[in-house]
Amino acid sequence: MILTSDRVLDELILGSMMMYHLVRGIRSLGCGFVIFDCDRQHQLGTEMANKLNSQLFVSRLSSYTTNEHLKRLFSRFGVVTEARLVKDPRTQRPKGFGFVTYESEVEAQKALKAMNGRIVDGRLIFVEVANTEKPGEDATSQQ
Q1: Considering only Cβ atoms within 10 Å of each terminal Cβ, which end of the chain, N or C, has fewer?
Q2: If we measure between CA atoms, which residue out of 67, 65, 58, 54 comes closest to residue 132?
Q3: Are 130 and 52 in contact (CB under 8 A)?
Q4: Are residues 63 and 124 in the same domain?
């Protein structure tokens, strides 16, 4: 095999791109050495994106709301895969907000339109698409 300068340059670019994605994958996992399949990584990324697009943030909930009540409240609009209230770690009482995850983005959008601004248990609640960014990150650092 004869290596031309173009062939060497192509191999270097390909190697650099693969290393970039490997390092990016390791950094996003927050761990040391990891070996992973690129196709599986893409599939996991797609699944994660779908899950995040189908996750809603619900605020101003009553402190008496339970996970079961939240799931029942939102299950009219589709299959709820998870309904989770955020609790105070010390008292274990709900903080008044939580997350609802649907199987599809369409179901989540239906619930958002129907439930945002409704009165539930005597409280005006707000529903929005859950923010997928980690604290301290902005949209430009994820590219």
Answers
A1: N
A2: 54
A3: yes
A4: yes
